[in-house]
């Protein structure tokens, strides 16, 4: 298979032959790229494989995975195609790299968060968890997508209290909806606009380490 997306792979430096690793797939926001996302998770690169997936559609100096009719209203055909292609990419990468298939995480911001949550619906418990930063779930996903059980999928959802792109009301609605689908959901608001604060970053990194059962005490 030739993957649809360009991507960066960061393997743990001390890679052990025959061992599989928990893996974070990052999905960037509209007009951004995979390099920006790596900056959010770089401190985890010692313990996780990190794969940054670049959107295939150029947008300004960056990229996107799908286009919009209007804010909050994805072009359905492009959105569906992106979801299918991303699921295929996750399977492709799992076959190619030493990825532990029961410890696969998606971490997305904005458009990437929207896709991460949608892929949790599509893939269900084939994912270990998702981190969704400042996103939402399109109405057509809730009403028309076949939803797999997410009861054992872990979720970290955060939103900016002063988000000027997706108002905080959307964050509350998204968390309430996902809480009905998941047994293990963490939701927190941060005093930010449409972005990721240092506190938010530290919280989701600690959450990922704990969920993947990685000892956070190093070099003792």
What share of residues are in beta strands?
A: 25-35%
Integer count of domains = 1
Give me the CATH architecture, please: 3-Layer(aba) Sandwich
What is the mean pLDDT? 95
CATH superfamily: Alpha/Beta hydrolase fold, catalytic domain
What features would you describe in this structure?
With 220 residues, this protein is of the alpha/beta class. The chain has a single domain, classed as Alpha/Beta hydrolase fold, catalytic domain (Rossmann fold). Helices cover 35% and strands 26% of the residues. The chain has a seven-stranded mixed β-sheet with strand order 1-3-2-8-9-10-11, with helices on both faces. β10, α5 and β11 form a beta-alpha-beta unit. The mean pLDDT is 95.
């Amino acid at each position: 298979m030739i993957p649809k997306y360009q991507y960066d792979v960061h393997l743990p430096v001390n890679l052990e032959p025959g061992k599989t690793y928990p893996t974070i797939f990052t999905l960037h926001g509209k007009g951004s790229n995979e390099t920006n996302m790596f900056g959010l998770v770089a401190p985890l690169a010692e313990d996780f494989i990190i794969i940054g997936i670049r959107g295939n559609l150029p947008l300004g100096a960056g990229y996107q995975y799908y286009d919009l009719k209007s804010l909050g209203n994805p072009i359905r055909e492009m959105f569906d195609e992106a979801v299918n292609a991303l699921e295929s990419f996750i399977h492709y990468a799992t076959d190619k790299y030493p990825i532990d298939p029961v410890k696969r995480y998606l971490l997305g911001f904005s458009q990437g968060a929207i896709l991460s949550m949608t892929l949790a619906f599509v893939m269900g418990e084939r994912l270990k968890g998702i981190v969704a930063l400042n996103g939402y779930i399109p109405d057509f996903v809730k009403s028309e997508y076949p939803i797999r059980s997410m009861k054992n999928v872990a979720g970290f959802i955060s939103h900016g209290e002063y988000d000027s792109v997706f108002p905080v009301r959307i964050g509350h609605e998204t968390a309430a909806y996902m809480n009905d689908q998941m047994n293990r959901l963490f939701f927190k608001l941060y005093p930010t606009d449409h972005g990721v604060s240092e506190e938010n970053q530290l919280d989701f990194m600690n959450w990922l380490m704990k969920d993947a059962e990685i000892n956070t005490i190093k070099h003792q």
